[in-house]
């Protein structure tokens, strides 16, 4: 057994780590032999020195097997999607229900917010009564009966990743390609999937701001997952503007409910959701090609079957049975709601700054133990090229917080003529 500080020193100095050494360090994360400081130092050493592909595979496997690895016996394929994170990226909520309505089974293990990006787990926590961390038996039962369940990491699944995930959030190491790859895939491999579709974000609101970096991450995830026997495809999608017109927790849940019910269906959000869902159905053998798959997903929305699945999932996990029909009765609302106006069309958006403004409102964390105010955020966020005078609506806990958020939102938007937005899906890898 090598001392944790020796493993850290070797990686700090650019030396290679063998699989046994990595496995021993990960075991220390799980049993407590590795301290918080040592875990943070390891993350920073990996951030600066990087991991080779064999090291990345070894780290992923060790984290996967730090806890339970699920096995399913279901009458359909077990599929999932994961996003690297962005602003207004609440795709997981409707997508899981849409795929379930088309015959797939979606055991989605989601995470808390990381850095400036929102987390699916934090959004679900804004639903009263929703048990986002159920026991494994309840999780498996809901997937079997409803077709989908979106939960947080349980104590049994990839516990080493759960510890590193919180440390990365507050140590400036979120953007590490190696740590992102191992974190994502350890949870997905532990979930016992038949197919995975990755949504790798690129742009001003993503961890990977440039296309070469996003492509490298997508290729890393596909290579490691494929090497571990998990069929994986990655789509590189645009995050130069918020994907949904809402950013926050309860406000994004409300947006997802509006999307599923047809009350609001923004074009780019819909395009990304369909593209990811189509790849999932094809990977699971539920459609011959993405054109057929997209048609099936559209029908799941139009018929109300996706909304019905989502409602059943929420109820099965302890949430209100009428959330879809009466969201305003259940989702928490901020006491201060303020429109923010600006003259002229939108030329560009510093999207990351919107995510940081949500944290400033109390909708995200600066320390792992911080609580979150689910009520706060932004809605009606304008897109580049829009000429209306409204750039967004602030939802805040008090007037002082609203003042700060309004100033941040104004600073994030640049006025002037804008070129038409490009494609929402930029590349397919895998």
Index terms:
single chain, 430 residues, alpha/beta, four-stranded mixed β-sheet, four-stranded antiparallel β-sheet, globular
Structure description:
The chain has 430 residues and is α/β, with parallel strands linked by helices. Helices cover 47% and strands 14% of the residues. It is built from 17 helices and twelve strands. The chain has helices spanning 4-12, 19-31, 36-49, 53-64, 92-101, 120-124, 136-146, 159-169, 177-190, 211-227, 250-261, 267-283, 290-302, 305-316, 327-330, 351-363, 399-412, and strands at 79-83, 106-110, 148-152, 195-202, 231-238, 247-248, 336-341, 346-349, 377-379, 390-396, 413-415, 425-429. The strands form four sheets. A four-stranded mixed beta sheet has the order 1-4-5-12, with helices on both faces. A four-stranded antiparallel beta sheet has the order 6-9-10-7, sandwiched between helices. Strands 2-3 form a two-stranded parallel ribbon. The two termini are 38 Å apart.
